[in-house]
Amino acid sequence: MINNILKEAKARGISDQDLCKILGKHKSKIYDWKKGRSEPTAQEILLIAEYFNVSADYLLTGKEPELNNSIQTNSGNVGVMGQSNAPVIIYGADKRVLTKEEAELLNMFDEFDVQRRMKLLQFAFDVKNGQNDAEFEEEVKVAV
Fold this sequence. Notes:
By secondary structure, this protein is mainly α. Helix content is about 55%, strand content about 5%. Strands 1-2 form a two-stranded antiparallel ribbon. It has a two-stranded antiparallel ribbon with strand order 3-4. Helix 2 (about 15-25) crosses helix 3 (about 30-35). The radius of gyration is 20 Å and the shape is elongated.
């Protein structure tokens, strides 16, 4: 496990000291891992996995978990862990079914450039927080 973490850090050009900063720990933390004096806690593993954008399974085993329910996005990337009417893993949440509309939205999002993605995310954030309610309701009426 420690070798997987160090390998991933090295591949990204992250030093032991940088890794300690990411964890908010003393710089001797990684040294202790290397010497076998301690091991990463579950919380540290999750934090590192999130920072590196890999699964905790990958850090623990060196292998990504097999996901038989991946869908192919329109750009050819496999990154959505689910499909319509199939279980989906949402990190930090329970398994649930990804609806057809959610899969469609994710495929559209995948096609957008960064600027359009940010606009969509800002719009969604505003709607979630009750801003632009009238505009949103009008858009829904037009779509239906």
